[in-house]
Amino acid sequence: MNDPNDRHGNAPLSQVELSQVDLSQVGLLQVDALGCERDDRTLFAGLSFTAGAGDIWQVAGPNGAGKTTLLRILAGLFGFYDGRLRWQLPATLRESMLYLGHRAGLREELTPLENLSWLSALHGQKQDAALMAALSAVGLGGFEDLPVAHLSAGQKRRVALARLWLPGKPVWILDEPFTAIDADGVALVEAQLRSHAAAGGLVIYTSHHQLAADTRQILLGQGEARINTAHAGAAA
Prior knowledge:
It is a single chain. 28% of the residues lie in helices and 26% in strands. The protein is an alpha/beta fold. The protein is globular and about 50 Å long.
């Protein structure tokens, strides 16, 4: 019988049903010898690490190295891989995780408020009272009722990123969260990621932008994967 806490290879996402745990006392994610091939090409192999509450992990590497694929594997959205990953979370992975892809995923005909309401409800993050505050936090106060089609690329990205200001998701998996936003937006999101980790959350993100010297790093490239031990050691 399969252990429902484990995902190995292309195990179905429905197996990720997890028992109650104290997030401050355990590694939330254990990855052992993870590897993936796409189109007969090895993206990465032999990746092993443990991520815990309060950690920030950056996945870095050149284009095509498999950064997005790795995030999708960790998020339970892509099941074709070798190795094993094990989540220990207070509920199912879907209930515990906020996943933001590199595309905003917005409907152009809807307003920022309508989009945020729809996205938060779709992903079990419905917080009616917090929606306006979240949009205000990302600098979209006064734009709540304007169709998204009339917003700039940076403003559209901020609509999607507003979900970072809604409570209830201890694990954040973010694909290029700093894309299309200006320097003020980068600083705003950076501060929010730090705040989430300081509160005991886990952040795993892809970007060429490193938050700090003590950010743990997963480096992908040329079919290999390695942990930047200098950064991991500084954060230990």
